[in-house]
Amino acid sequence: MNARRRCSLCVRSDDGLERILYDMAHMHNKDVRTLAGLGRHQADGFFEKVRDAASRRKEAQRQSSREDRRSLSRMRDDLFDELLEEISRGGGAGGLIDGYLNDASRHALEERVAHEDMSREYVEEKDVIEALSAFVDARLIEVVGGAYRLTPRGCRRLAGHILRRIMENVRTGPSGPNPTGDEGFGTSEGFVTRRYEFGDEFARIDTQATLLAALERRPGACPVRFEEKDVRVRETVVMSRVVNGLIIDASGSMEGDKLHAAMDISLALTELIGRSARDTLKIYVFSGTVEEVPYWEIPNRRFSGTITDMRGALKRFRTRTQSFRGDKQAYLITDTAPNSENGQYIGFERAVAGVLEEARYCRLAGITLNIVMLDEAKHLSEFASALARRNTGRVFFARPGDLGRVVVEDYLKRRR
Prior knowledge:
With about 425 residues, the chain is an alpha/beta fold. The protein folds into 3 domains: about 30-145; about 185-235, no CATH class; about 240-415, von Willebrand factor, type A domain (Rossmann fold, 3-Layer(aba) Sandwich). It is built from 14 helices and 11 strands. The chain has helices at about 1-5, 15-25, 30-40, 45-90, 95-100, 105-120, 125-135, 150-165, 205-215, 255-275, 310-320, 350-365, 380-390, 405-415, and strands at about 140-145, 145-150, 185-195, 230-250, 280-285, 290, 325-335, 340, 345, 365-375, 395. The strands form 3 sheets. Strands 3, 4, 5, 6, 7, 10 and 11 form a 7-stranded mixed β-sheet that branches. A two-stranded antiparallel sheet has the order 1-2. Residues about 1-10 and about 175-190 have low confidence and may be disordered.
């Protein structure tokens, strides 16, 4: 019971705010100007907050407009009073009228009233900024360059929300891991060195190997002059119980609900795995190229492509996890078959042969490859089954709405 009370899956949260954050994460356009235009025609979710902000602004404008109109009315009344008084004395009215017509303060009031009349019926960008302010204050989003993006804190909040929604539909098993005790895993330095890459820790620099590389480049040079390409670091061996991979197809056919569902499971699985010190997760998005993406960047990126280099994606996961000790498994999420390699279209038959060969390499590297197919076409079913057989993995056929449940159920089942 104590473990259940401590499980953060059971912690209550502001579900209404998180539902709006979820909708904001899935918006195709996140720039303030576009949102203001959409707010004129939509009134649900986030746009309800925009409309509320617009209503408050309009009411303040009405108050200001009434004051401005009263000021203009007083100006006219004063003019007529002065005209009558001047005429009664037998004077001319030209000077008074010219003064009234050229009065800069009157022009400013009239322009302000006209602007208030025109803007009163529309949602403006300032209304969107006002609606976003609550999320900015909570550090869930930030507004940069006229557009909003989720912060790492916002992505973590969103991930928890998505995971709770998925767990409501998981059929069996616990509602997530509640690990206790020391796991006994971490990192250790290997004996292999490689060139320094941006982001490597300076503490891993191998001074002896660096010196040898510099001397090899310029034998007999004195003094020794180092260049960036001379710097060598020790490869780190990561000791983890399970290394998990999400390999997500971002080609054109995945746009819309399918890619949104893949984004959701990447966040939810990050949240679930992050609650255990035993496992790690790596996320790769591919189309014509392959990119490893941190989970907090996924809601802020627009992924789109035309061709499908599936072999390159599997190879990237295999090579990037070769220093990990422990079980390795990956979920390949796609709705199509491969058709390219190295950014070049080569057709289905040649691409499939390359993917099947890479699946064999993955099996030799100890990687279990699970295929989650979001289309049930016959040729895709045959391809997915052949790929799973080559790697001794499994095949799941799922609709976008079931993707999260399918992957989380399988992950929890394998962890028990």
